[in-house]
Design a protein that fits this description.
Distance between the termini of chain B: 37 Å
Shape of chain B: globular
Structural class of chain B: alpha/beta
Number of strands of chain A: 14
Shape of chain A: globular
Radius of gyration of chain B: 23 Å
Strand content of chain A: 15-25%
Oligomer: heterodimer
Order of helices and strands of chain B: HHHEHHHEHEEEHHEHEHH
Number of strands of chain B: 7
């Protein structure tokens, strides 16, 4: 169908607009939402749908998520925003002890599946400790939650619509560096991209490269480097949904290539690559030609200076490919 | 108690955020320097008298009074203030309080005998449950903490249902997933209890906001204790309820203890009621052992919520006669004489029984 050029911010706005126009129970709320949001994701929505549906809350993440749980449990579609993923932690109790367990603990008498919590995440060049974090691993350890990370505007709109409509509480983490940088021809209509389905972006025979969010683009470039300089054919996969993750697609790919590189900005130890590596070595052991390589943020807080050395840049990933290929 | 009044200004319609200081400053004969502030955060007057610039604290003034209708012997303080509830309602109130008290005794002993793993009683607080529940409509949503089983019983929760949950048998709709006393009932609009304290508090205004949008004509009541009121979630809840105009009743059961922690170690101000005005919330303190007074304030609170879409804070003073739970022996931190006083001299059920005998000749 027809498309318009949009960046990632505008794709978010588009998805929210679609929900607000089709679901009369939907409300969008958080800090600074009314004027359009610090990243402009909610521009125009308060004017269009009114202050009762698009509104500011006081500055309290635990309040925002708790309030959202109550809204959802009472039958409204609740779309909350955390201003930065780095500030989701005051809401950790509400997310892990309440949202994730609401349906289970009540034997399905109650649920807050209509809750979605959006947050900007990831490195942005100068964000340092508190404007760069990728907290997906904390929440991937919580049965009852879903965690989704898009890589592009088209993916964002489809995945966000699917997340909002998914009957479970979903955390939607938007790589902020892509907010304005990523521009695509986004379909104008209402469409969804399924959760818990990874996408193979490029087929390959020799190695599987797996990432999510902005790191997908880094690995794409690394794959091109590997092909040009090492003659290696790399299969590139975007995980898209971190939890529950698409084990089948990943294991199928690794069984074919025998070599897996997983890369994320979040710190190495306990990062989500560790879960993937553990599962893959268990399922695909006899197909592996080399141990799974993980190229991640270092095990330190995210620094202001030396960010290019902190993040899993293309050179570190390329080195890991060489190691995988020559094992 | 004075409510903080925010001055309203009407700006020119050209832009929503137009600013016009000359209008604000024009008042006749004002000495300069004492005009109204233009600060966005407060439009009160300036003053050179520092005594004017200090909010009331509760040092030495004895604190906010407790509203009651009858004394601890069941005598009306003011006969004109009799609520004149129907005999049917009065008897149901008494019966439900007795039912709760009796069920508590049996289930507490069941835990002691190894039949169930854990239990929490509501001894001494029966009036807070029944007084509040009886003043609500059945479609008002309940977000509770863990010591509000009487609310469920009032609404029709059966003893079988209580026991199914406590025993975690195959008839428990929650499939045995939670510890005893973590009741929930979709049919009775009582959200399932969760162990973490005060987490229900910000959820309640969220649910209330949804009810407001749906024009359901219903409110939410959110129960919590004096200890839970210290949690950050409690602060967030009240601030959200006030700023977002949520029809929610915050009902604090101040029973004097959070497990072993007495209120002296829990707060330094005048309990929980004194915090309400800080959020801009209408607040009242009530004698929680007076079931009629509790009914009265909750009924009034409900009206305010549903008609004005504003939250209300009720602090019901009471006493936890029982231990915190079956895992607690409160003689380790309080005197048996103190407990005995409340059990024998000022118990909500016996107080009400006295009232009933005078009112309808029987209890």
């Amino acid at each position: 169908g027809s498309t318009t050029q949009k960046n990632l911010v505008q794709s978010v706005t588009d998805a929210l607009d679609t929900i607000l126009s089709t679901d009369s129970s939907a409300v969008v709320f958080g800090e600074d939402i009314k004027f359009g949001g610090v990243f402009r994701c909610t521009v125009g929505l308060a004017e269009k749908y009114g202050n009762e549906r698009v509104f500011n809350t006081p500055l309290s993440e635990q309040g925002i998520v708790g309030f959202g749980i109550g809204l959802a449990a009472a039958g409204a579609t609740a779309i909350a925003e955390m201003q930065f993923a780095d500030y989701v932690f005051p809401a950790f109790d509400q997310l892990v002890n309440e949202a994730a367990k609401y349906r289970y603990r009540s034997g399905s008498m109650f649920d807050c599946g209509q809750l979605t919590v959006r947050m900007p995440c990831g490195a942005v060049g100068h964000g340092a400790l508190y404007h760069s974090q990728s907290p997906e691993a904390y929440f991937a350890h919580t049965p009852g939650l879903k965690v989704v990370v898009p890589r592009s505007p088209i993916q964002t709109k489809g995945l966000l619509l699917a997340s909002i409509r998914d009957p479970n509480p979903v955390l939607f983490m938007e790589p902020k560096i892509l907010y304005r940088q990523a521009v695509e021809d986004v379909p104008v209509g209402d469409y969804e991209i399924p959760l818990s389905r990874a996408e193979v972006l490029k087929e390959g025979a020799d190695l599987t490269l797996l990432a999510w969010g902005n790191q997908v683009h880094v690995l794409r470039e690394v794959g091109q480097m590997a092909e040009k300089e090492l003659g290696l054919s790399c299969e590139l996969i975007d995980l898209r949904t971190i939890y529950p993750w698409d084990r089948e697609t990943i294991c199928e790919s690794v069984s074919k290539t025998g070599r897996l590189l997983v890369s994320h900005e979040a710190p190495f130890t306990g990062g989500f690559a560790a879960e993937i590596a553990a599962f893959v070595q268990s399922e695909c052991f006899l197909n592996l030609e080399a141990p799974v390589e993980r190229v991640c943020g270092w095990d330190t807080p995210f620094p202001h200076i030396h960010e290019p050395f902190y993040v899993p840049n293309k050179y570190r990933c390329f080195d890991a490919i060489k190691k995988l290929a020559s094992y | 108690l004075t409510m903080l009044r925010l001055c309203r200004f009407s700006f020119r319609k050209t832009r929503a955020w137009a600013f016009s200081p000359t209008r604000l400053l024009s008042s006749s004969g004002e000495p300069s320097g004492h005009e109204q502030s233009l600060y966005p955060g407060s439009k009160s007057r300036f003053s050179a008298d520092i005594a004017q610039c200090r909010p009331l604290t509760s040092d030495g003034d004895g604190g906010v009074s407790l509203y009651r209708v009858m004394d601890r012997l069941g005598q009306l303080l003011n006969p004109e203030q009799d609520l004149n509830l129907s005999e049917e309602t009065l008897l149901k109130m008494h019966k439900t309080m007795m039912l709760l008290n009796t069920a508590d005794k049996i289930l507490y002993d069941a835990q002691r005998q190894g039949r169930i793993s854990f239990y929490m009683t509501s001894f001494g607080e029966e009036a807070t449950h029944i007084g509040s529940a009886s003043a609500l409509n059945s479609n008002d949503l309940v977000y509770a903490q863990y010591r509000e089983a009487g609310v469920l019983l009032w609404r029709g929760y059966t003893l079988d249902e209580m026991m199914n949950q406590c025993y975690g048998n195959h008839l428990d709709p929650a499939k045995g997933r939670q510890m005893p006393v973590h009741y929930g009932s979709k049919e009775l609009n009582y959200h399932t209890i969760s162990s973490p304290l005060a987490t229900q508090m910000p959820q309640a205004p969220g649910a209330a906001y949804a009810l407001k949008r749906a024009q359901a004509g219903a409110c939410v009541i959110c129960y919590f204790g004096d200890g839970a009121a210290s949690e950050g979630d409690a602060h967030a809840a009240m601030n959200f309820a006030a700023t977002l105009d949520c029809p929610v009743i915050f009902f604090c059961r101040n029973n004097g203890y959070a497990i072993s922690t007495p209120t002296e170690d829990q707060y330094r101000g005048d309990g929980i009621v004194a915090r309400g005005p800080g959020y801009g919330i209408d607040s009242v303190r009530v004698d929680g052992n007076d079931v009629l007074a509790v009914y009265d304030v909750v009924r009034a609170a409900r009206e305010i919520c549903v008609k004005m879409n504003k939250p209300v804070l009720i602090e019901a003073m009471t006493y936890r006669v029982g231990h915190h739970s079956t895992s607690d022996d409160s003689s380790a931190y309080r005197s048996i004489d103190e407990v005995s006083y409340w059990d024998r001299e000022d118990h909500p059920i016996s107080r009400f029984a006295h009232y009933l005998k005078q009112k309808i000749g029987r209890a």
